[in-house]
Amino acid sequence: MKLFDYLKMALPDLTPETTKVHLAQMNDHKEDPLVKFREEAFDDWQCWQKRLEFSRRYVVSLIRVPRTETWLFAGVFQQKGNAGKKTYSNREEMYYQYYLQKIPETEEYVGRMYISFKNTARNFIRRGESIQNELVVSAISPVRLSFGEFPGYRHFVLDRNSIGAILRLNLQSWRTALSMVKGIYVLTDRDGGKLYVGKADGMEGIWGRWECYFGSGHGGNIGLKEAFGTGDEKRLQNITFAILEVIDPNTDNGEINRRESHWKQILLSREFGHNRN
């Protein structure tokens, strides 16, 4: 079913001709709208626009799932005007601040409905009628997208933006679970597919290692410094983090070193990855 057909069942006066579609994705300031959504900050974030783009009654907001042609439905909003140009987030450019009121009739699909759409234009805000036939509902999840409670050590793969959001929010279930264990982890560099295997053996366990990586971008590792410089944000967006093995915090460092070496050998991260020892 097409997106507008679906939405009109909940909101009959919503038509493509009365709608602008906001195709939200990573911007020049390296802000990821999917992370903003998980932080419950997306609604406010999208109100700030460089140009007078939201010129129609409704705004349908979709968030791109990175590196795919799939978009998460983030809601329908009624445009109530704007407050003119203002300073936003200490940036040199001025932004229009829109008043967008979320439509409750479509709230049940927010964070659950996924749309297939290939945006062949460079514009991130499109007229509804120009793309209405291309926006197709591909799936409706029973669970709303969020960080939620810690899912378990072997059940997540996170990018840098997501790790940063979890750290900023100081999500307690994540912090408790990750700070009470040591472990072996793998960083995947999607630009070329190279791996880096590392260990988390400090007092704060894996959580502490996250803080170190997010602060520096390389965690002090020679191979990662070579690959990512001194913190090139564009390159750092290509990293994902996953746990290979959880280790008891009382395990001695010698055993942790042996487990780290074991995984490096299995994954060939010395020969073909970013490990240098």
Which class best fits the helix and strand makeup?
alpha+beta
Let me know the largest β-sheet.
Answer: 8 strands, mixed
Low-confidence stretches at least 5 residues in length (pLDDT < 50)? none
C-alpha Rg (nearest Å): 22 Å
Summary, kept brief:
28% of the residues lie in helices and 29% in strands. The chain is of the alpha+beta class.
Task: Write the SSE topology.
Layout: H1 3-10, E1 19-24, H2 33-38, H3 42-45, E2 48-49, E3 58-64, E4 70-87, E5 94-102, E6 113-116, E7 125-127, H4 128-131, E8 136-140, E9 158-159, H5 160-169, H6 172-179, E10 182-189, E11 194-200, H7 205-216, H8 222-228, H9 233-236, E12 239-247, H10 253-267
Parallel strand pairs: 1-3
Antiparallel strand pairs: 1-7, 2-5, 3-4, 4-5, 4-6, 6-8, 9-12, 10-11, 10-12
